[in-house]
Write a structure and sequence with these properties.
Structural class: alpha+beta
Distance between the termini: 39 Å
Radius of gyration: 13 Å
Number of strands: 4
Strand order of the largest sheet: 3-2-1-4
Number of helices: 2
Length: 78
């Protein structure tokens, strides 16, 4: 079993791929104002909560272990 330090993933590319998938599945229509949070339990996209098959699909594709949460927000709130 490898260490977490050995785990390498480009989060930016992962986010880009997920955004493209959200657009293709018509879960979003624009990336102008976008928030998503993907956890082992659910997918929250701009306040719409997805569970079941939709969430499991995105978890399998975009939530590699040991990552537990993928969070994205644009524009960034300061």
């Amino acid at each position: 079993m490898g260490k977490v330090d050995d785990f390498k993933i480009n989060i930016g590319k992962l986010e880009d791929r997920m955004i493209k998938e959200l657009l293709q599945r018509h879960l979003i229509s624009s990336t102008d104002v976008l928030y998503f949070k993907l956890t082992a339990d659910e997918l929250d996209v701009n306040g719409a909560i997805y569970a079941g098959d939709v969430a499991r699909y995105f978890q399998a594709m975009f939530l590699p272990k040991p990552i537990k949460t993928l969070l994205y927000r644009y524009p960034v709130k300061r």
